[in-house]
């Protein structure tokens, strides 16, 4: 009897752990989770120029007319100053850090709040890092870029981005350093990070670039609202190195090249 009980406690514990660590893919803003299917090797068999040919569902990566990333001098980009266009309402919630192979992604399990754009509410799902930056400003690329991926109830996507240049360490990444170190080259591994407050990711309060583009990883889904902070923040060299090391076996760098506007 006692044995049965402890087995059942063990089983429940196991189930709980499974629940925490195997997050349903529906909430991951449609980004591809399996990392080996594409990479960032220019000219390689599954590199960025080939993404659209790897799977039919990824064809927008080659044929899409509003692909990301782009340079901020592109005429599609608007400078937004009016704070009321972005109503940021993020809140702390439980999160798991996952090594997706092509990047490190912080996935909120519970309600991490939302942003309101044009009366559409987009809930925060996850954040991940690209190095070097994917978006460029007047042709200049930066050392790191974070994407905060949001999704509305009808599956519309909005991404807030912040670019970083080398300098003083970023306090948000500092908080996650132990967790990131524990998953170096552990593709598919998840660690529970506790309660993470998305407000600790510092963005600009008022100044944004805004344009309509796509996800920068397959399936390159379009009609994504991009809000890119015009205030550049800093990150230390060792923090960028740590993020690189964590995915090193799979991607030396993980920035999709700038996309040309394709003629309509
Ligand atoms: C918000 O609505 C305005 C007016 O309808 C439109 O011009 C603008 O493109 C919209 N912005 C976004 C990000 O959807
Ligand atoms: C989506 O729908 C749920 C349930 O109706 C609601 O609570 C939530 O605020 C809605 N918005 C987002 C962005 O999830
Ligand atoms: C991850 O970070 C959390 C919060 O700081 C900590 O409690 C946990 O032990 C860390 N896990 C690992 C594997 O480093």
UniProtKB/TrEMBL annotation:
Pfam families: Carb_anhydrase. Its cofactor is Zn(2+). One of its GO terms (molecular function) is zinc ion binding. Its EC number is 4.2.1.1. Residues 36-264 form the Alpha-carbonic anhydrase domain. It catalyses: hydrogencarbonate + H(+) = CO2 + H2O. Residues 1-29 form the signal peptide. Keywords: Lyase, Metal-binding, Signal, Zinc. Belongs to the alpha-carbonic anhydrase family. This is Carbonic anhydrase.
